[in-house]
Design a protein that fits this description.
single chain; Domain 2, N(10)-formyltetrahydrofolate synthetase; Formyltetrahydrofolate synthetase, domain 3; 3 domains
Length: about 575
């Protein structure tokens, strides 16, 4: 059916005071900090009151390997929450706050879409309650402390060539990837090479998402390793006496933000770590609070099951102790056709018209990718529910092919989702299927034990989740693993950094590639976040803007309202 654009839809819905939304879920007025009329921080003290309550069912939403088409994972996360509320379950969706880099670049906003959105949409996508700015400020404060320490004599004897702490900004700016700082006069600092990452790639953001309270946040910030001294020993934020001030900057950012959806249900928005670099999930704190005030929590992981979902299972759930009941894998007919390897899709360029012509053969070929994602979920002992995000022009025989292949791979079931066009009403089949999956008594388990050697953890992920034959280490990667093991970090989980555009390390390899060796070119330590992260292939921690940035279309209208968001 004809649709308005996302921003027009969002603005067509009368907003309710956020205190009214909170009251529906039993959140008391004194447990809120209002940021205007339509969004609020939830105070962490609420957890004291909820300590003894029965916890909600816990559902993770993931997807097949992403394509430039967009599969609608956030739309499904919000729409599933709407549908669950429609069928009588009190549900809350928990999602990440989007970085402004992609918003002004090529991806656009991340509030969902159509009739399944978080609103106000422009607030959600631009600044919100300032958490990302607080992360950037805390991160850059530590950067400034490092260079100030060098300027004033380097009492800790830092090895300049070992400094690994970059600077960050929440805008895609490729010119800052590699810079030289400290130029000018002697009083302008010590000249050295430095890098910039996008703010959501900061270890501070990863820490914020994994901490359990402000005291845990303080401890984790203190453990951040920024460099080695000339004796090879780690130098931390605690050594630089910066962790306390960083915590002070994050005292409000540690609280999740409560917002509303297009159907007046609750959504919690908190933290925004990238899934191809960091752990790619919203915060433990938001999920824990939501779990105490509803029947079912629907949370989203970034990218496919090989990325944010695997990290949800093996990093986030380890840190929180929360146990998921089921996972939803979002796909589309068009995405599976692309994974046949027969199409080349470039963001911003016209689509091949053959994508919209029913072709069961192409869908079946592309379902090899879906098969691997189902295996990834089942490897953790959970039922996998397939949500086909419906598009005009999809064929019923194409849907049936997906259902048949998914069932053959052991998926719990497959539902057609029309939440973009119909809101919660378009997701009731999916909602009932998810509720049934949650009642199966799943046997959730992690992919590896923490006492497994780091190299074996990496290989387990590469072989089980990606379909690799094994792992090849390049440069100093093996040396780093030995150093981290000797320093006492061998018991940390692994957070793989690789492209999200393929199950492999190579974005050009579509479908479900087999027989490849996963190259690990570097292994880094995020001691504060509590994981080791290997870099597979080439990774960018600072994106660049496209030739025609999305920000060109963003402006204000004659009433002073933001326009051009999508």
């Amino acid at each position: 059916m004809p649709q308005k654009n996302d921003l027009d839809i969002a603005r067509s819905i009368p907003l309710k005071p956020i205190s009214e939304i909170a009251a529906r879920y039993g959140i008391r007025p004194d447990e809120l900090e209002l940021y205007g009329d339509y969004k609020a921080k939830v105070k962490l003290e609420i957890r004291n009151r909820l300590a003894g309550v029965k916890r909600a069912k816990y559902v993770n939403v993931s997807a097949v390997t992403p394509t430039p088409l967009g599969e609608g994972k956030t739309v499904t996360t919000i729409g599933l929450g709407l549908a669950l509320n429609r069928i009588g379950a009190k549900a809350i969706s928990t999602i990440r706050q989007p970085s402004m880099g992609p918003i002004f670049g090529i991806k656009g906003g991340a509030a969902g879409g159509g009739w399944s959105q978080v609103i106000p949409m422009e607030d959600f996508n631009l600044h919100l309650t300032g958490d990302i700015h607080a992360v950037a400020a805390a991160h850059n404060l530590l950067s400034a402390f490092i260079d100030n320490h060098l300027h004033h004599g380097n009492a800790l004897n830092l090895d300049l060539h070992s400094i690994s702490w970059p600077r960050v900004v929440d805008i895609s700016d490729r010119a800052l990837r590699n810079v030289v700082i400290g130029l000018g006069e002697k009083q302008d600092g010590v000249p050295r090479q430095c890098t910039f990452d996008i703010a959501v790639a900061s270890e501070v953001m990863a820490i914020l998402g994994l901490c359990t309270d402000i005291f845990d946040l303080r401890r984790r910030l203190g453990r951040i390793v920024v460099a080695r001294n000339r004796d090879g020993k780690p130098v931390t934020a605690e050594d630089l006496k910066c962790a306390g001030a960083m915590t002070a900057l994050l005292k409000d950012a540690v609280k999740p933000t409560l917002m509303q959806t297009t159907e007046g249900t609750a959504c919690m928005v908190h933290t925004g770590p990238f899934a191809n670099i960091a752990h790619g999930n919203s915060s433990i704190i938001a999920d824990e609070i939501a779990s105490g005030i509803c029947d079912i929590v629907v949370t989203e992981s970034g990218f496919g099951t090989d990325m944010g979902c695997e990290k949800f299972y093996n990093i986030k759930c380890r840190a929180s102790g929360m146990v998921p009941n089921a996972t939803v894998i979002v796909t589309t007919v068009r995405a599976l056709k692309m994974h046949s390897g027969k199409f080349r899709i470039v963001a911003g360029k016209p689509l091949d018209p053959k994508l919209d012509i029913p072709d069961v053969g192409l869908v079946r070929e592309g379902c090899e990718n879906l098969r691997q994602h189902i295996r990834n979920v089942k490897a953790h002992g959970l039922p996998a529910v397939i949500a086909i995000n419906a598009y005009p022009g999809d064929g019923e025989d194409e849907y049936e092919a997906i259902r048949s292949i998914a069932a053959g791979e052991g998926a719990f079931g497959t539902a057609i989702s029309r939440v973009w066009a119909q809101g919660g009403a378009g997701g009731e089949e999916l909602a009932r299927m998810v509720m049934a999956a949650c009642d199966t008594g799943a046997d959730f388990h992690h992919l590896y034990d923490l006492d497994t050697p780091l190299a074996d953890k990496i290989e387990k992920i590469a072989v089980s989740m990606y379909g690799a034959s094994g792992v090849e280490y390049e440069g100093s990667a093996l040396k780093s693993l030995k150093e981290y093991t000797a320093a006492g970090y061998a018991g940390l989980p692994v957070c793989m950094a690789k492209t999200h555009l393929s199950l492999s390390h190579d974005p050009a390899l579509k479908g479900a590639p087999k027989g490849f060796m996963l190259p690990i070119r570097e292994v880094r330590l995020a001691a504060g976040a509590g994981f080791v992260y290997p870099l597979a292939g080439e990774m960018r921690t600072m994106p660049g803007l496209p030739s025609k940035p999305g920000g060109e279309g963003i402006d204000i209208d004659d009433q002073g309202r933001v326009i051009g968001l999508f």
